[in-house]
């Protein structure tokens, strides 16, 4: 294999590893802008991965599985929203419990049942795929990858240009003021969580029915936390968040590819790199790029 | 009263046990939700073709049926309890730490380093190992406090991110020969683990009972739990801690150094998680080697223990026992054909069952209070009482003469926490006890 082939391999596997992160990051970004530091994104992705394979196995259609996975993500988000933005249980508590619950439940169910593998079809553009280095990365992918290209601008438009997004950001910055001006703070936060659940669900489902074609125990393996790190690394801006996803995906691809290429590199450092980068980004840009001011603060009318 | 034989202390104890307004509702609701949680778990087993009764029996046999089973359960209880007590301290201060899983590993790492590198004779080595874990993990958690203090980095975020750094740090240490990877014996391949810590750095069973092993770690954990419960309930420092957690602005006005106090609370919670890591390293629950997976999710579970115990270190003891029992019983489940992952499901459902009722009932109570002034059923001539004054019998004119009822009447409809003066920073007398109750009421 030539060097160009190696680079093309890493790039294309990096792209595949980036896609689930990018889906979920679009969702987590919305949730965080609304003021929910949503830890259960891991549960959303894992539950969706399981649900997509289960439904795909039952119906025989990977596409229906993908949709079902997204709905599982929404279901987890719904529970999270009810518990933390209606009943007002501490959002981290809810997230931790949901993560533990979904991990336990999916591990249990995958042990007692067997599913057949399913995978969504692959887009393979003739001609363009032969472009050296970037060809395979851009033009040989499973179709949900191209759905991502629609999700990103849609998320941006929703948050930055729609009235809903404006209210969402107000809720994340100053819930008291938003409340006084007639915005239902906790409802907006629940809605943001549902959007997060939908996209995290798509990400998780893509991992199962798109990338791997099957489900294994603890399949997401902390990708949800990686997504949170990406949003933090991106300083709560969509573009930078996605750059974070690409960097993290490439780091993962390099970790997997380098040993085969005979390059020894510290794999622990590569695994830790996303978290380290996120932490450093917070330290360095603390004064210029700040978090939504009410991030992780519950809102209850009548309290400060 | 005297006939019942309840003296002053007894009354105080009763008052302490009384869960406050709506307490019985919460109790009943909790019983109901726990029932639902167990019912759902049984349903899950039944639907997937297992036998709920056989599973329950296996859980019992693995955790409580014999002294040996209890010994296993209690080995898990000790680290869980330590993590939980630490989580109580940090949660009380409002500096919410969710990085215990990593702090457990850092504690084990520091302990392993000292245990394997220092050649100290006798039990002194064990003491040094435990101390190293406390200091190491305390500093690790303290870093988050520093990042918050100087760069305003969200503590929850930084403690969470540092968990993953800790995991990779330990993985690096046991994969690197010049750090802590096991030494080569013969020609076998090296595993990612350290050498076992020497015998004199291990926690052994206390006393000599047939079959039952009471590990020293459990005693240590219970002592720490009781001591910190006393410190938080009875000392000046504990009162300040609570104040910072309930209202940092008030605490700052009262002269409390909020950042320093919260940082110390965070370091304590990290240190206790680290101590739990040292227990995992030195007690028979592990192979006495440092391994990347040795934290066994004790950090996450310990955090859940603290949540169920509502940040009360003493309540954390029975909750930790429950979690330890579930853990030990889980290993017996596999024999019945039910995957041991069931335990994780049961645990998560139980946590929800315990956490939800008080919050839900509190919310319903608030909602009822908020709805009351909206319903114009009372007399329209009482505009002076907007916040749900108890009755239309407004104590305006007549109560001035009724000296006996005036204080009670005036005290009841003043819920306004904004108007109370900040409590003095010096606790210990009866006056502050009243303020303390007021602060508790405000959060509830």
Automatic annotation (TrEMBL), chain A:
<feature type="transmembrane region" description="Helical">
    <location>
        <begin position="143"/>
        <end position="159"/>
    </location>
</feature>
<keyword id="KW-1133">Transmembrane helix</keyword>
<dbReference type="Pfam" id="PF02653">
    <property type="entry name" value="BPD_transp_2"/>
</dbReference>
<keyword id="KW-0472">Membrane</keyword>
<feature type="transmembrane region" description="Helical">
    <location>
        <begin position="245"/>
        <end position="263"/>
    </location>
</feature>
<keyword id="KW-0812">Transmembrane</keyword>
<feature type="transmembrane region" description="Helical">
    <location>
        <begin position="269"/>
        <end position="287"/>
    </location>
</feature>
<dbReference type="InterPro" id="IPR001851">
    <property type="entry name" value="ABC_transp_permease"/>
</dbReference>
<feature type="transmembrane region" description="Helical">
    <location>
        <begin position="48"/>
        <end position="79"/>
    </location>
</feature>
<feature type="transmembrane region" description="Helical">
    <location>
        <begin position="221"/>
        <end position="238"/>
    </location>
</feature>
<keyword id="KW-1003">Cell membrane</keyword>
<protein>
    <submittedName>
        <fullName>Nucleoside ABC transporter membrane protein</fullName>
    </submittedName>
</protein>
<feature type="transmembrane region" description="Helical">
    <location>
        <begin position="192"/>
        <end position="209"/>
    </location>
</feature>
<feature type="transmembrane region" description="Helical">
    <location>
        <begin position="91"/>
        <end position="110"/>
    </location>
</feature>
<dbReference type="GO" id="GO:0022857">
    <property type="term" value="F:transmembrane transporter activity"/>
</dbReference>
<dbReference type="GO" id="GO:0005886">
    <property type="term" value="C:plasma membrane"/>
</dbReference>
Automatic annotation (TrEMBL), chain B:
<feature type="transmembrane region" description="Helical">
    <location>
        <begin position="293"/>
        <end position="309"/>
    </location>
</feature>
<dbReference type="InterPro" id="IPR001851">
    <property type="entry name" value="ABC_transp_permease"/>
</dbReference>
<dbReference type="Pfam" id="PF02653">
    <property type="entry name" value="BPD_transp_2"/>
</dbReference>
<feature type="transmembrane region" description="Helical">
    <location>
        <begin position="126"/>
        <end position="148"/>
    </location>
</feature>
<feature type="transmembrane region" description="Helical">
    <location>
        <begin position="314"/>
        <end position="335"/>
    </location>
</feature>
<keyword id="KW-1133">Transmembrane helix</keyword>
<keyword id="KW-0472">Membrane</keyword>
<feature type="transmembrane region" description="Helical">
    <location>
        <begin position="155"/>
        <end position="174"/>
    </location>
</feature>
<dbReference type="GO" id="GO:0005886">
    <property type="term" value="C:plasma membrane"/>
</dbReference>
<keyword id="KW-1003">Cell membrane</keyword>
<feature type="transmembrane region" description="Helical">
    <location>
        <begin position="68"/>
        <end position="90"/>
    </location>
</feature>
<feature type="transmembrane region" description="Helical">
    <location>
        <begin position="102"/>
        <end position="120"/>
    </location>
</feature>
<feature type="compositionally biased region" description="Low complexity">
    <location>
        <begin position="373"/>
        <end position="413"/>
    </location>
</feature>
<feature type="transmembrane region" description="Helical">
    <location>
        <begin position="212"/>
        <end position="233"/>
    </location>
</feature>
<keyword id="KW-0812">Transmembrane</keyword>
<feature type="compositionally biased region" description="Pro residues">
    <location>
        <begin position="414"/>
        <end position="426"/>
    </location>
</feature>
<feature type="transmembrane region" description="Helical">
    <location>
        <begin position="22"/>
        <end position="48"/>
    </location>
</feature>
<protein>
    <submittedName>
        <fullName>Nucleoside ABC transporter membrane protein</fullName>
    </submittedName>
</protein>
<dbReference type="GO" id="GO:0022857">
    <property type="term" value="F:transmembrane transporter activity"/>
</dbReference>
<feature type="transmembrane region" description="Helical">
    <location>
        <begin position="341"/>
        <end position="364"/>
    </location>
</feature>
<feature type="transmembrane region" description="Helical">
    <location>
        <begin position="254"/>
        <end position="281"/>
    </location>
</feature>
<feature type="region of interest" description="Disordered">
    <location>
        <begin position="371"/>
        <end position="444"/>
    </location>
</feature>
């Amino acid at each position: 294999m030539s060097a160009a082939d190696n680079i093309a391999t890493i790039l294309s596997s990096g792209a595949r590893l980036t896609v689930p992160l990018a889906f979920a990051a679009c969702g987590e970004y919305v949730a965080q802008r609304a003021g929910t530091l949503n830890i259960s994104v891991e549960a959303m992705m894992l539950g969706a991965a399981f649900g997509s394979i289960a439904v795909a196995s039952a119906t025989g259609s990977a596409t229906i599985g993908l949709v079902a996975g997204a709905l599982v993500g929404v279901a987890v988000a719904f529970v999270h929203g009810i518990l933390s933005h209606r009943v007002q249980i501490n959002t981290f508590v809810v997230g931790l419990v949901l993560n533990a619950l979904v991990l336990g439940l999916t591990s249990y169910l995958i042990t007692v049942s067997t599913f057949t593998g399913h995978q969504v079809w692959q887009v393979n553009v003739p001609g363009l795929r032969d472009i050296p280095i970037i060809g395979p990365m851009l033009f040989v992918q499973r179709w949900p990858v191209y759905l991502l290209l629609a999700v990103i601008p849609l998320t941006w438009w929703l948050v930055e240009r729609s009235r809903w997004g404006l209210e969402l950001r107000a809720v994340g910055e100053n819930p008291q003021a938003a409340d006084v001006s007639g915005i239902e703070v906790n409802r907006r936060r629940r809605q943001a969580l549902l959007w997060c659940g939908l996209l995290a669900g798509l990400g998780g489902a893509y991992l199962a029915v798109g990338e791997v074609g099957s489900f294994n125990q603890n399949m997401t393996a902390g990708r949800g936390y990686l997504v949170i790190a990406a949003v933090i690394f991106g300083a709560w801006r969509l573009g930078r968040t996605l750059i974070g996803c690409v960097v993290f995906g490439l780091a993962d691809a390099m970790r997997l590819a380098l040993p085969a290429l005979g390059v020894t590199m510290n794999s622990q450092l590569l695994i830790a790199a996303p978290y380290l980068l996120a932490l450093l980004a917070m330290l360095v840009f603390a004064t210029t790029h700040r978090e939504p001011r009410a991030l992780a603060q519950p809102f209850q009318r009548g309290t400060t | 009263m005297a006939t019942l034989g309840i003296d002053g202390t007894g009354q105080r104890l009763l008052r302490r046990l009384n869960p406050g307004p709506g307490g019985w509702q919460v109790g009943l609701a909790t019983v109901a939700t726990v029932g639902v949680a167990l019912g759902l778990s049984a349903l899950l087993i039944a639907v997937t073709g297992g036998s709920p009764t056989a599973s329950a029996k296996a859980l019992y046999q693995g955790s409580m049926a014999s002294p040996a089973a209890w010994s296993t359960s209690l080995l898990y209880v000790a680290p869980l309890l330590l993590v939980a007590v630490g989580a109580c301290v940090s949660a009380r201060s409002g500096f919410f730490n969710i990085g215990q899983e990593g702090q457990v590993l850092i504690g084990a790492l520091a302990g392993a380093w000292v245990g394997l590198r220092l050649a100290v004779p006798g039990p002194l080595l064990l003491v040094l190992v435990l101390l190293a874990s406390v200091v190491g993990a305390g500093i690790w958690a303290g870093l988050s406090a520093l990042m918050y203090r100087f760069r305003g980095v969200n503590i929850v975020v930084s403690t969470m991110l540092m968990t993953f750094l800790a995991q990779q740090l330990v993985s690096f240490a046991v994969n690197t020969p010049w750090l802590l990877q096991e030494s080569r014996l013969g020609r076998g391949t090296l595993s990612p683990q350290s050498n076992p810590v020497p015998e004199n750095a291990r926690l052994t069973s206390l006393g000599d009972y047939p079959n039952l092993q009471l590990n020293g770690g459990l005693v240590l954990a219970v002592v720490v739990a009781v001591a910190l419960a006393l410190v938080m309930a009875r000392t000046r420092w504990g009162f300040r801690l609570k104040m910072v957690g309930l209202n940092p602005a008030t605490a700052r006005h009262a002269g409390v150094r909020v950042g320093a106090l919260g940082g110390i609370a965070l370091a304590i919670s990290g240190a206790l998680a680290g101590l739990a890591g040292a227990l995992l390293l030195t007690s028979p629950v592990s192979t006495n080697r440092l391994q990347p997976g040795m934290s066994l999710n004790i950090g996450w579970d310990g955090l859940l223990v603290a949540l169920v115990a509502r940040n009360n270190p003493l309540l954390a003891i029975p909750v930790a026992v429950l979690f330890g029992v579930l853990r030990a019983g889980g290993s017996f489940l596999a024999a019945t054909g039910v995957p041991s992952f069931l335990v994780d499901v049961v645990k998560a459902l139980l946590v929800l069952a315990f956490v939800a009722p008080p919050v839900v009932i509190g919310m319903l109570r608030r909602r009822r209070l908020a709805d009351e002034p909206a319903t114009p059923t009372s007399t329209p001539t009482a505009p002076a009482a907007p916040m749900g004054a108890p009755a239309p019998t407004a104590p305006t004119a007549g109560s001035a003469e009724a000296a006996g009822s005036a204080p009670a009447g005036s005290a009841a409809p003043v819920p306004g926490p904004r108007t109370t003066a900040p409590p003095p920073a010096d606790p210990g007398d009866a006056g502050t006890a009243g303020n303390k109750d007021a602060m508790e009421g405000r959060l509830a």
